Amino acid sequence: MAITDTDSLRAEALAQVEQADTLDALESARVAFLGKQGSIALLLKTLGKMSPDERQVAGPAFNGLRAEVTDAIAARKAVLEAAALDAKLAGETIDLSLPAPESPIGSVHPVSQVMDELAEIFADLGFAVATGPEIEDDWHNFTALNMPESHPARAMHDTFYFPDADAEGRSMLLRTHTSPVQIRTMLQDGAPLRVIAPGRVYRSDSDATHTPMFHQIEGLVIDKGIHLGHLKWTLETFLKAFFERDDIVLRLRPSYFPFTEPSVEVDVGYSVEKGPNNTSRRVVGGSGDDDGHAWMEVLGSGMVNRRVIEFGGLDPDEWQGFAFGTGVDRLAMLKYGMDDLRAFFDGDLRWLKHYGFAALDVPTLSAGVGVGA
C-alpha cells in the first residue's frame, strides 16, 4: 500500500469510530481496524516485506495511523460510557427519605446474654465478678472444698483428668464447677468478700438436660454475722430481677453439699402454659402450692463450711459466709422457653437466629435485663 493510501484508511476508521453510537458498535470498529485481521493490523504486517529504505518511510506513518485510531477509540469510549451513566442516573432515582438497608450483624448467644444479665443484677447488689482457670488442680477443685480423695466426684468416669500432674504433684483436670474460684479469691483478697464466679465447667455427662461442657455461676459472700436470712433475701432478689416478676416464691429444702453446712436446695413455683405452635413451657412465678402450679429446683446453696473457710486462709470463728450455684444454660432455658440443652452447642444458625439477641441491646436494670428477648 502506498503511503498516500493511508489517508483514506484513516478517514474511514475515524468516521466509523465517530459514528459508533454504542459500546458494542465501537468494539466492532476496533476489531475491524486494530484486531488481528483488521485493516491497520494487516497494513503493519506489510512492513516486513519492504526494503529498509521503504520501512524507514512507511513505518512511522503506519504506526502513527494506529496510534491515532487507538486514541480516537479511547476518546469515543469515554464519551459513550459517560452518556450511559447519565442515562442510568436519569432513569434510576433513589428515595433519600427511605431508611438505609440494614447491614447484617451477628447475634449474641443466649448463654452470653444471660451471663451479662446475671452480672448486671449482681453488680447492683454489690457483687464483683471473679474468674479462674478452667484447667484446675485437684486441691482447688476438690480438697479445698471439703471433698477428700475418697469422694466419688473424683472418679475417672465423673471427671476429665489430664495424664500429667502440676509442679507440686497434684492431679490436673477440667474443673467440674466454678467453686475453685471461691478458694482462689479468698486466698488472694481475704475478707470481707462478695463475688460471683461465672464460667465454663466440665463433667462426663450427656443427655437432653446435661452436656459435657456447660456454664455455671456461683456466688460467695464472706463477712461477719452472715446467716441464712441474708442468703434467702439475696436469692429472692436475684430471681425476681432475673425473671422480671415480683411473684417469685422460694422454697428452701434441707440438702447436703460438702462445701456448705447447713445446705439448702432452692425451689421456685412455676406453672405450665401453652406457647407457640401449641407447645408447653414452664413459666416461673407463683407458689408451687397454688392450683395449677408445682415446685422446681433451680439452684443449690448454703452456709460456707468451716473447713472451706479455713482452706481459704480465713478464721471461721471470725468470718462466716454463704454460697450458691446454678447453671446458666438452665436459667436461659427457663426464661426464654428452650427445651433442649444440647441445642445450645449444636452451632445451628437457624436456632441462634430465633433465640439470639441483638448485639447492641446491652441488658441493664433500668431498661430490663431481658431486653432483646
From TrEMBL:
It comes from Croceicoccus marinus. Residues 112-363 form the Aminoacyl-transfer RNA synthetases class-II family profile domain. Binds 2 magnesium ions per tetramer. One of its GO terms (molecular function) is ATP binding. This is Phenylalanine--tRNA ligase alpha subunit. Tetramer of two alpha and two beta subunits. InterPro entries: aa-tRNA-synth_II, aa-tRNA-synth_II/BPL/LPL, Phe-tRNA-synth_IIc_asu, Phe-tRNA_ligase_II_N, Phe_tRNA_ligase_alpha1_bac, Phenylalanyl-tRNA_Synthase, tRNA-bd_arm. Mg(2+) binds at residue 261. Keywords: Aminoacyl-tRNA synthetase, ATP-binding, Cytoplasm, Ligase, Magnesium, Metal-binding, Nucleotide-binding, Protein biosynthesis. Belongs to the class-II aminoacyl-tRNA synthetase family. Phe-tRNA synthetase alpha subunit type 1 subfamily. Its cofactor is Mg(2+). Gene3D superfamilies: Bira Bifunctional Protein, Domain 2. GO terms for biological process: phenylalanyl-tRNA aminoacylation. The keyword Transmembrane helix does not apply. Pfam families: Phe_tRNA-synt_N, tRNA-synt_2d. GO terms for cellular component: cytoplasm. The keyword Protein biosynthesis applies. It is found in: Cytoplasm. It catalyses: tRNA(Phe) + L-phenylalanine + ATP = L-phenylalanyl-tRNA(Phe) + AMP + diphosphate + H(+). Its EC number is 6.1.1.20.
